[in-house]
User: Fold this.
Amino acid sequence: MSRFPLPPNATIGLVGGGQLGRMSALAAARLGYRCHILTREIDSPAQQVSYGVTISDYADPVSLRAFAAAVDVISFEFENVSAEGLDLLASLKPVRPSPHILRISQDRVTEKSFLNDAGAPTAPWVPVGSLAELQEAVGHLGLPAVLKTTRLGYDGKGQATLRALGDLAPAFERLEPKPLVLEGFVDFAQEISVIVARGADGAVSAFDTVENRHRNHILDLTLAPARIPEAVDQAAQATARRVAEALDLVGLLAVEMFVDAAGRVLVNEIAPRPHNSGHWTIDACPASQFELHIRAIAGLPLPPAERHSDAVMKNLVGPDDTALWPDILATPGLIPHLYGKAEARPGRKMGHVTRLFPRGSLPGDFGVRAALGVLGRE
Ligand code: AMP
Assistant:
């Protein structure tokens, strides 16, 4: 049986081979742990920096057993493991965060019900199983509204904004898998997020609230800290902590929220893992989101999620941003991170850069653009 805290040289199993696994594995290595990755991909970003790998489908029981046998604790950077796969893993080794949390975050309807029950407000929503139900839901929520798949959506995939009645049938036909969920449209002033770690002893560390900007439905910029009124910040922090407590989280949780025109904080979605909007913490905090993730699942003490600097994080997406890599390396002040992906497909997250500012001196939009050098050009 695994004993906590995990001793140095213990092996952490990570499901998923992407950049979140890669950066978690780097943080784990610094704490003296080995990582073993379960991934479908050959030559994945996480495998390149890890001790071991099992390359397999996430549903194959033989591979899941081999993976579990090689590790002391199991965590995730990829959430969409089947219920049976999760149950099998949990029967073999401690799984942190617990499978019930992954199940909640895998399904938007389960997630929103849970959030609302926990006292975390969301946009109004209605489950939609048929075109007739969609028409009825639009009658309740009005237009515009956002229609989403309940499962397997990310980076704006699996959703459609409905603006006119003529949009209903084509959107319902196109979005797969069914069932769907209709959300009221939030005319948001800002998108923000809070990343919170919670240990098995109930200790909580939450990073400062940050502001997120998207481009083509993909995160483009994160500004730390968010430029929001104190009351909004307090509401965001309190919401993130409340959700972590209500989930009985052991691990890391990202809570993405909208701030609406009236200054209300509404949760969009939660992810029980490191998050793109927390990459700035690697460079701007003594202990990053990845270190807190590893500490929480390994049973180590959680340090405060302090920030020594303000920061801007810019994602490097697809071939256009990748082409700027030589310029990025030649620009003083840009802290480069590349994920080791061989092929720069459009929309693929290839890396990110961070730019630090002394605490309290995060510039406005113009200054942020200027500070990003070649990456700040529109
Ligand atoms: P999601 O896949 O739920 O994270 O949504 C991706 C992006 O779509 C969000 O970051 C928002 O920019 C936008 N979006 C999602 N849901 C809504 C909504 N209910 N109202 C307005 N914009 C939304």
